[in-house]
Automatic annotation (TrEMBL):
The chain crosses the membrane at residues 21-44. This is SpoIID/LytB domain-containing protein. Keywords: Membrane, Transmembrane, Transmembrane helix. Residues 63-156 form the Sporulation stage II protein D amidase enhancer LytB N-terminal domain. InterPro entries: SpoIID/LytB, SpoIID/LytB_N.
Amino acid sequence: MLDRIFLSNSYSYRKKKCAAVIVFIAIYLLIPTIVTLNVTGVVYTPVNEDYSDGRKVIVKYRNATQEVGVDRFVAMVLAKRLYMSSEVEVLKAESIMIRTDVYRLMGEQMIIDSSELGMEYMTTQQMKSKWGKDYEDNYNLVKDCTAATSGLAIRYNDKYIEARYTYITSGSTLSGASILGDEYAYLSAVECNNDKNAQDYLVVKTISNKDFVNSFEKKYDSINLDKNNLAQQIQIVSKNEAGYVLKLQIGNVVMSGSEFAYVLGINSPNFSIEYMQTGVKITTIGVGEGFGVSVYTADCMAKAGSSYEDIIETFYNKINIISE
């Protein structure tokens, strides 16, 4: 009799213990989802980071290369751009833009080297080094936003667009049709009044005459520049109505405003130059070339409740977001 009571109690105990374990596991699995949803607005679902439609990108690590699926590469590029905005809907829009550019540049190929894409990305080790204790949260954020838009890309007239973006405009994005040609008609001119409130909207940088000349001589062997009297050796040939320099001549070399900005490491081709005895003072407006999505305005839109579709359709005209 005592044996039966003991066995009955033991069985009941095991049932309760088993039920407790099941409840614990359920709570353990649920908490990350609830926390992620509250913090990012994206429900985390485990995904294979190498999943794609078969297309691959070859990425370079310190001493090796590796083939990764397009979505994983998109997340690596998105990680590099995370400094611009951490808003979920902006990151979703950016992930679609990155994927669109990857598909456009791949064409019919199923595999492409990342060097052919011209996109900066971060490896896992670089992310851990830069983000430290925030690595897991930041990477889950970019990975979740990439997964949420997996396979989506942007087309105009049944072709992948060049998904241009600008961090901060001079107050409005530029019309693609009027400056770049009809094939860029999807790049809308959109007012971005909030951009004028951005910290880097207006930046003044002073460069010594010597450093100015050295910078261009490293890039152009036969530029023939003299550090004395630079004002007579620099000529702005053309600007657009928004103030972006389209063409200028430095010494005997003609270049675009974007090339000039790249060589000197200034924020934008929207600039003015003031000549001083010992150097030049360059004032830039905005960050980037002025075309496509204004990331700063998109960030403001997301904070006000706009979706990634709203953001994309605001800055790109008559496009379709399609699933591959």
